[in-house]
């Protein structure tokens, strides 16, 4: 493959956009090389500016669960566009998608739409603080909830202590209100709660983590968090930006039967347009302006094109009773196939999978939290990534990302992927 035009476009972009990209991971910093510029996409395929075609396992980092240029979404957006692109007034379609989302997801009465997953999580935390009258939050190392200040926090000096900023620009004052816990470690969470009794407003978690590879919760971990939250009057926030409408119609709450107090959405709920949302039972949501004192707003929130895309996507998922079974089967097929060919080449690996989220770790120990994810062999991952890319398989350019499986993938696509993984394994 040659990437001539991509390289030229990247050089041009670097002059006017910091690092040439509008979101850092796209710059290939973790794997080296020059980012590929995509021209168009259809079904499970991406086509770049040099006319190379790839089987896509990024899928816009999650939204394209039914493939690229999914016809009902494209049609809905095109039709809406003809009527005007934004009014800044209420529109009927906002209620339609809200009704559908509320009917699909357990334990929520009301939902508010925003423009990104970051906004959803940031607003959910503000709402939790406003509702409980407490300031501190607990988040988990390796979980990502967008780039708002409260979340850009790393572990402080001791295990049961305050976090510290992991980006310049985040103040120490902000960092002191975010406590960092270990994923899948209930005792660690309990110790944090005990050390900060009556000060914690919420625990926010990716209930199936997808930002350190795919990491499932251990049995009883989520229920344990639920029990601790109930006991200590803490709100449990499930950040389902990745998992919402992907792992089941009702997300992780439905999949594992654990109740959250607030749920955040993004990605799939927008069908590929910029949409986020947060939702909860009425008592909590009524604390939001204009009904309640917690302020939250947005010029483009509930934008008609975004709502049209999201509604078409949720309708397609809601009307297909086989979709989550099909996705699971395809992902399991890929898992088994990749495991087989990696093992044949004696490549040390661990594959994690929940539903249509899957990740390959070059590690021989179970990957259960951030540390065990970080222990994977990054040099092997880099070679693996470029080996796949050069043979037409596009996975995320970082060992800490989940692969997203789309229903548009055929078994031929999966077989081709497994064959390529086998070839690349021989070069590692
Ligand atoms: N929460 C999770 C779990 C995510 O994976 C992401 C983004 O990848 C976000 C929040 C932030 O969403 P956005 O990038 O739309 O701001």
TrEMBL record:
Coiled coil: none
Pathway: Porphyrin-containing compound metabolism; protoporphyrin-IX biosynthesis; 5-aminolevulinate from L-glutamyl-tRNA(Glu): step 2/2
Primary residence: cytoplasm
Gene Ontology molecular function: any one: transaminase activity
Enzyme class: isomerase
E.C. number(s) listed in UniProt: 5.4.3.8
UniProt-listed SUPFAM superfamilies: PLP-dependent transferases
Cellular location(s): Cytoplasm
Modified residues (N6-(pyridoxal phosphate)lysine): 267
A GO cellular component entry from the record: cytoplasm
Cofactor(s) needed: pyridoxal 5'-phosphate
Source organism superkingdom: Bacteria
Reactions accelerated catalytically: (S)-4-amino-5-oxopentanoate = 5-aminolevulinate
InterPro entries tied to this protein: 4pyrrol_synth_GluAld_NH2Trfase, Aminotrans_3, Aminotrans_3_PPA_site, PyrdxlP-dep_Trfase, PyrdxlP-dep_Trfase_major, PyrdxlP-dep_Trfase_small
Gene3D superfamilies, alphabetized: Aspartate Aminotransferase, domain 1, Type I PLP-dependent aspartate aminotransferase-like (Major domain)
Keyword line: Cytoplasm, Isomerase, Porphyrin biosynthesis, Pyridoxal phosphate
Family to which the UniProt record says this protein belongs: Belongs to the class-III pyridoxal-phosphate-dependent aminotransferase family. HemL subfamily.
Quaternary structure note: Homodimer.
HAMAP family associated with the record: HemL_aminotrans_3 (MF_00375)
Name of the protein described by the UniProt record: Glutamate-1-semialdehyde 2,1-aminomutase
Species, as recorded: Bizionia algoritergicola
Encoding gene (name): hemL
